[in-house]
Design goal:
Length: about 210
Amino acid sequence: MLLVLLSSPARADGLTASERAAMKASLAALYDSDDRLEQAENYYRAALRDDPDLIVARSRLADVLEREGHVSAALEQRKECVRRDPKDAQSRVLLAMQEYRGGQRDQALADLRAVVRINPQSAFVHESIGNILAELGRDDEAEKAYRKSLSLAPESAATHNDLGLLYVRRGRRDEASVEFARALKLDPDFEAAKRNLMNLAAQTNPKR
């Protein structure tokens, strides 16, 4: 139905640019969900020609481009999302995640900290900041970020596990054990936490 409407000049002419953009983005999403990436890309681009500020279409275009292997082009679309709406926290998170995947950890960290200024209550963002800081060896800052994340989402088994790994690296084994145990209490099937607790026990009580 969408394709019929968009292919009919008479019908399409009665729509505003924003309405045409929304319809093209919806059609692109259908192609996207069916992994027909070329068609999805074409319709997302068509939607953006009608409404360049349609952030959801631009963000999904970035997803498609990255899946197609056009990483630099995807990154530019994510940056454009942020330029067009600097207060859109989700766009900044997605930009930071792609920067991180591309090895740009310092830039990803800067963008995540910008998200905190927009939305300081996101446990996921604080945890992500902690993960990057831990990778950079900035352990004091990483611990602070993990603890902030847990203050917002104490039920996060993954964050307890991450904090436990940080404590292991810092030689704080008792505290690490507590965090791994908390992770397992929250998620008894958490294999990584089980393995980490077992490894810690083996290090603490080596067999003679």
